[in-house]
Amino acid sequence: MRKPSILTKSAFKVLLPVTIGWGAVAVLESLSYIAIALAILGVWPAYTVLLLGCVTIIMTILVSRSGFNVAVSLIDALYSEIINCMTHIKVRWFKAQNQTKLITLMGQHIPSFMAIPAHQLQQFIHAPLIPIVITIGMIWVAGYQIALILAGLLMIALYIQFISQRALLKSDQQRSGSEQKSKHAGQELVDHIELLRSATGCINASKRAEDAWLAQSKALACTNEAAAKSTFYAAVAGALPCLGILIYMLAAGVYSGEYVFVVTLLALRATLPMEALALAALSVNEHTSAIKSYFNVLEAPQLQEPINKQPKQLHNYNMRIDKLTYQPALSCFSTEIEAGTRVLIRGESGVGKSTLLHLLMGFDVPQSGNIQIGSTSLSSITSTQRETLFAYVPQSPVIFNGTIASNIRMSNPTASDEEVEDIAQKMMLTNVISQSPLGINQPVVDGGGQLSGGEKQRIGLAQAILKKAPILILDEATAALDTEVEEVIAKELMQLDCTIIVVSHRNPAIWQAHKTITLAN
């Protein structure tokens, strides 16, 4: 299990000074109110109030500024940790549900952590300390009896808050769970709207999402009800200490205007943070859920890097697969692929073709068995070196917003426009390029929405070729092409000086494979 470092070590280091700062502000502010009380009673001179007030204001400004600066540093560190983790997560982890959690974490939860040093610490350090310091100061101002009564009433108020927040926490956990299901259902609807409409009809296509949204709506209603009760209890808790002190003084026959005013002032100031604590507690549940999501990503199954980080000297690119097992798809599978050959992998859906490709590229690790390139085990090759060995084209290549050239050049950023255009033409993208005077520099947006499936595949093929990797892997990479176009492109690919591994359900003769591997259940 991966130990998260930022939220346990680095976060503690950067938050500690801000925490101490807000503690100092709370003490200074409390002393300022005590000074006001003692000045009214004639015990302290008036200038002490002015002095403490100025120091408190300056300290508050400095700590507030520090809190925002620390918040920015914390967010940068959190994003860096997540990005570093994502580069080593096994591909099989990226299922739809985990994708939704990851998107929510990156776009919503991590930014919400900025509120912790910027706002939350002020509430959770500043708010509790003020009642404590004022209660201690009350011994000096009004005697230990009133101080003890105030302490008791404040504890009762805190207990009321604890009970209400516990109920709110339970309700909010249910809301968080239904929110995740709702987001997953929404993403499912957007990603597969064509299938849902064709399978269930337009009216019923969104039923699964509607059910999830309805459950979320009910959970939100329960949370709102719990929040309303919590607000009511917060008002009761806020009035209780001050009202109790006044009743006690009236019962004890204390009628001195100055004395009653001073004690009431201090009791009121000690009580005010209760409302702040109640409001802050509403965000604790969200931060707790966000921290759990952060830990879940950091604890996702990781690809282990070899201890020796030095690049391996590969004498050739012959591949040997020895007793490879990855249940339920592959079991004790062995074969050899000589460098420079063309290999066709065939088999029914679900027999492990894509799984085999992922294992060959190191996107995942087998449960047992070994993969060698030359005489070097794939597991002993670093991810940085391994990614230079393979070029990969999936059945549905991803087109990023930018230009045709930027998508092709992604695998080789230093390639010239001439190289990019030459490969694009070889991949029969001439018609696409000629549609705009910008040629290969014409923009593509919305994931290449203006491109057909076959055009996207040809861009993906051009990108893979431009990488000039010694091993080219095609996973149904020509499935959207016409037979004539596929034959032309296959002939171009066969001229490359590299190993070509093809998964295809179409005419095997097109690839003139030197070796055919047939996988079966």
Automatic annotation (TrEMBL):
Pfam families in the cross-refs: ABC_tran
Record field: transmembrane: 12-38, 44-63, 124-142, 148-169, 232-253
Location(s), subcellular: Cell membrane
GO molecular function, one term: ATP binding
Membrane topology: Multi-pass membrane protein
Organism superkingdom: Bacteria
Record-given protein name: ABC transporter ATP-binding protein
Organism the protein comes from: Pseudoalteromonas prydzensis
